[in-house]
Amino acid sequence: MNMPLPHAPLQRLDEQLQAAQAATPHVSVAPQSAHIGALIAGVDLGRPLSATEIHTLRSALLRWKVVFFRDQHLSHSQHEAFSRQFGELTVGHPVFGHVEGHPALYSIAKHRQANRYGNEPERRPWTGWHADVTAAHNPPAASILRGVTIPPYGGDTQWTNLAAAYQALSAPLQAFLQSLRGEHRFSPPQGANATAEYLALVQQNTLVSEHPLVTVHPETGEQVLYISPGFLKTITGLHTRESRVLLEFLWEHAVRSDFTVRFQWAPGSIAFWDNRSTAHVAPQDIFALEFDRQLYRSTLVGAVPVGADGRASTAISGNPVLAAHGAAY
Ligand SMILES: [Fe+2]
């Protein structure tokens, strides 16, 4: 496979990050792989950040797509305050609710409601990969996940860079994909034997949206292979078999190990990712272990995606993902 060459937006992001770092020499940014992930140290997320620190963190996020922090033992309120410095917060989860007393936090426990499909997990390599809530018309711009109870081993998270994945495709296929849009739907996996409780929650706010298969990132200008395997169900206008085979190729391509990074959690770890240019997965190995795992997530309000052809996404069903204070659910 031809690996992506550095392209103009990436060079600009490198320059922007270098300039930001020059103003914050106490903050280190250590890349974790060729295409994605950087470990940031030298900053205390439990207190208000300076404008230059915020600029460095934001620049590192845009360049490396997911940034990691260690030994940040934040309270729920500190987690919300840290997140708010980067944008408006959404309600914890548009379908599964929020932490009591903290409307912007979603509890990611090992046996949470969203996992209760009651079915056997699929075994294909892209099973479980997704970007957060892409069934919404305006999926979150970013997610901030904090580890509290962490197993001694197992329960890692992986991310993949969907701009790098797009860059690695041939020009004719890139051009074809730019003409396509796909339907993202919040529903149990096909054939799943979902519990009645799960179905009731999903049906009270059925999220369905049509997004371009290639989006333009609103801040970096990068073109992104906007496929979220967990939510993207069909490609509009293609025959069923064409859609299925093309999606399976794209999903397999997008999660190739070349484009990914894997993070081993510890109590106090934080992962902050750009939800517009990445997908992520929690490997299922945690369910083979007896250990518990508890994380908390906040998400930043996102804009409606726009395709490489200039057309915006369209809402088919469900409410937009609003800021936590204005949410109706
Ligand atoms: Fe997620």
From TrEMBL:
Co-factor requirement: Fe(2+)
Positions of transmembrane segments: none
GO molecular function per UniProt: dioxygenase activity
Keyword Glycoprotein: no
Entry keywords, A to Z: Dioxygenase, Iron, Metal-binding, Oxidoreductase
SUPFAM superfamilies: Clavaminate synthase-like (SSF51197)
Keyword Iron: yes
Pfam families tied to this protein: TauD
Domain TauD/TfdA-like residue range list: 30-281
InterPro entries: AtsK-like (IPR051323), TauD-like_sf (IPR042098), TauD/TfdA-like (IPR003819)
Family: Belongs to the TfdA dioxygenase family.
Protein name: TauD/TfdA family dioxygenase
Species name: Acidovorax bellezanensis
